[in-house]
Design a protein that fits this description.
The protein is mostly helical. Helices cover 75% and strands 0% of the residues.
Length: 113
Amino acid sequence: MSTPTRYRVIALYKQLSYLGREYPAGADYFHKKLKGAFMKNKDLTDPSEIQKRIDLGDYVCKEIEAMYHINKYRAMKKRYYEDAEVENIQAKLENTNWAQGSSSSATQSSPRQ
């Protein structure tokens, strides 16, 4: 493994270790899984395979950060809205046609007009 790749792997491990401190299943659980994943791949020598694993680690970092943001948003929403209001908002979101896209929404009339 080349020196820049080695530093990138170490930085990825540190970043994931930092993100795992607040993992919902517990920090110990996360660190055991993290160490196991890195130890499983410690003997890789192919640079393209190492790069694939680094890219996967970056993807996992982004997913964990997104999970933390969603949890933060949900906690804020619980603080500022009553339960009945939250149910009304969720019902409105479920009834909207997000799957149809913007092309079909242009043909439908807007209720605010």
